[in-house]
Design goal:
With 108 residues, the chain is mostly helical. 38% of the residues lie in helices and 4% in strands. The longest helix has 12 residues. The protein binds a DNA duplex (13 and 13 nucleotides) through helix 2 and helix 3.
DNA sequence: GACATGACCCGCG
DNA sequence: CCGCGGGCCATGT
Protein backbone atom coordinates (compact mmCIF):
# COMPACT_ATOMS: atom_id res chain seq x y z
CA UNK A 1 0.00 0.00 0.00
CA UNK A 2 1.53 3.22 -1.09
CA UNK A 3 0.18 6.60 -0.03
CA UNK A 4 -0.61 8.88 -2.91
CA UNK A 5 -1.27 12.56 -3.13
CA UNK A 6 -4.77 13.90 -3.73
CA UNK A 7 -5.72 14.21 -7.36
CA UNK A 8 -6.67 17.53 -8.89
CA UNK A 9 -10.31 16.58 -8.74
CA UNK A 10 -10.08 15.87 -5.04
CA UNK A 11 -8.31 19.15 -4.40
CA UNK A 12 -11.12 20.94 -6.20
CA UNK A 13 -13.65 19.28 -3.91
CA UNK A 14 -11.66 20.09 -0.79
CA UNK A 15 -11.23 23.70 -1.85
CA UNK A 16 -14.96 24.19 -2.31
CA UNK A 17 -15.82 22.36 0.90
CA UNK A 18 -13.36 24.46 2.84
CA UNK A 19 -15.20 27.62 1.72
CA UNK A 20 -18.33 26.58 3.59
CA UNK A 21 -18.82 29.07 6.45
CA UNK A 22 -19.46 27.88 9.97
CA UNK A 23 -23.10 27.23 10.76
CA UNK A 24 -23.88 26.50 7.12
CA UNK A 25 -24.17 23.38 4.96
CA UNK A 26 -24.13 22.63 1.25
CA UNK A 27 -25.42 19.86 -0.97
CA UNK A 28 -23.42 17.44 -3.08
CA UNK A 29 -25.20 18.64 -6.17
CA UNK A 30 -24.35 22.31 -5.74
CA UNK A 31 -20.82 21.38 -4.83
CA UNK A 32 -20.45 19.20 -7.92
CA UNK A 33 -21.96 21.92 -10.06
CA UNK A 34 -19.54 24.46 -8.64
CA UNK A 35 -16.47 22.42 -9.43
CA UNK A 36 -17.90 21.47 -12.80
CA UNK A 37 -18.66 17.82 -12.22
CA UNK A 38 -21.83 16.17 -13.54
CA UNK A 39 -21.66 13.42 -10.97
CA UNK A 40 -22.41 14.21 -7.37
CA UNK A 41 -21.30 10.75 -6.37
CA UNK A 42 -17.74 11.41 -7.48
CA UNK A 43 -17.74 14.35 -5.06
CA UNK A 44 -18.81 12.08 -2.22
CA UNK A 45 -16.02 9.71 -3.11
CA UNK A 46 -13.46 12.46 -2.66
CA UNK A 47 -14.95 13.60 0.65
CA UNK A 48 -14.97 10.11 2.07
CA UNK A 49 -11.26 9.94 1.26
CA UNK A 50 -10.85 13.35 2.91
CA UNK A 51 -7.22 13.29 4.15
CA UNK A 52 -7.46 16.85 5.51
CA UNK A 53 -9.77 16.05 8.37
CA UNK A 54 -10.89 19.09 10.40
CA UNK A 55 -9.52 21.45 7.81
CA UNK A 56 -12.09 20.26 5.30
CA UNK A 57 -15.49 20.31 7.07
CA UNK A 58 -16.99 17.35 5.28
CA UNK A 59 -19.67 17.24 7.98
CA UNK A 60 -21.13 20.40 6.45
CA UNK A 61 -21.94 18.55 3.23
CA UNK A 62 -25.40 17.01 2.98
CA UNK A 63 -27.51 15.35 0.33
CA UNK A 64 -29.77 17.24 -2.09
CA UNK A 65 -32.86 16.32 -0.08
CA UNK A 66 -31.05 17.98 2.83
CA UNK A 67 -30.62 14.76 4.80
CA UNK A 68 -27.23 14.24 6.43
CA UNK A 69 -26.07 11.60 3.98
CA UNK A 70 -22.95 9.87 5.23
CA UNK A 71 -19.96 10.38 7.45
CA UNK A 72 -16.63 8.57 7.96
CA UNK A 73 -17.64 6.05 5.32
CA UNK A 74 -20.98 5.16 6.84
CA UNK A 75 -24.43 6.12 5.60
CA UNK A 76 -26.05 5.25 8.87
CA UNK A 77 -24.76 4.46 12.34
CA UNK A 78 -22.87 5.98 15.21
CA UNK A 79 -20.78 8.28 13.07
CA UNK A 80 -23.85 9.89 11.59
CA UNK A 81 -25.13 10.73 15.04
CA UNK A 82 -21.79 12.37 15.77
CA UNK A 83 -22.08 14.39 12.60
CA UNK A 84 -25.50 15.66 13.65
CA UNK A 85 -24.12 16.77 16.99
CA UNK A 86 -21.24 18.63 15.36
CA UNK A 87 -23.61 20.58 13.16
CA UNK A 88 -25.82 21.41 16.11
CA UNK A 89 -22.79 22.77 17.95
CA UNK A 90 -22.10 25.02 14.98
CA UNK A 91 -25.62 26.38 15.02
CA UNK A 92 -27.30 24.05 12.55
CA UNK A 93 -30.47 22.48 13.90
CA UNK A 94 -32.27 19.67 12.11
CA UNK A 95 -36.04 19.63 11.76
CA UNK A 96 -38.42 16.87 12.82
CA UNK A 97 -37.70 14.91 9.64
CA UNK A 98 -33.98 15.01 10.39
CA UNK A 99 -33.33 17.48 7.60
CA UNK A 100 -31.35 20.69 7.49
CA UNK A 101 -33.42 23.88 7.02
CA UNK A 102 -32.82 25.65 3.71
CA UNK A 103 -31.73 28.77 5.57
CA UNK A 104 -28.57 26.98 6.65
CA UNK A 105 -27.78 25.84 3.11
CA UNK A 106 -24.92 27.91 1.79
CA UNK A 107 -25.20 28.95 -1.87
CA UNK A 108 -21.99 29.52 -3.79
C1' DG B 1 -7.67 -1.32 -20.52
C1' DA B 2 -11.76 -3.61 -18.37
C1' DC B 3 -14.53 -4.62 -14.14
C1' DA B 4 -16.40 -3.45 -9.78
C1' DT B 5 -17.57 -0.07 -6.00
C1' DG B 6 -19.59 4.17 -3.98
C1' DA B 7 -20.80 9.66 1.97
C1' DC B 8 -25.50 10.46 -5.03
C1' DC B 9 -29.63 12.00 -8.10
C1' DC B 10 -33.74 11.50 -10.99
C1' DG B 11 -37.61 9.40 -13.19
C1' DC B 12 -41.23 5.75 -13.28
C1' DG B 13 -44.70 2.58 -11.69
C1' DC C 1 -45.64 7.17 -0.25
C1' DC C 2 -42.29 3.42 -1.31
C1' DG C 3 -39.35 0.58 -4.12
C1' DC C 4 -36.65 -0.28 -8.42
C1' DG C 5 -33.66 0.79 -12.17
C1' DG C 6 -30.62 3.71 -14.91
C1' DG C 7 -27.13 7.31 -15.21
C1' DC C 8 -22.78 9.91 -14.30
C1' DC C 9 -17.90 10.42 -12.69
C1' DA C 10 -13.63 9.19 -10.27
C1' DT C 11 -10.88 5.60 -7.83
C1' DG C 12 -8.92 1.11 -6.92
C1' DT C 13 -7.97 -3.72 -8.21
Amino acid sequence: MKSREPTEFEQRVYAATRRIPKGCVTTYKKLAREIGCGSNQAVGQALKRNPFAPEVPCHRVVKTDRTLGGFHGQTQGKEITRKTRMLREEGVVLDGAGRVPTEHVFAY
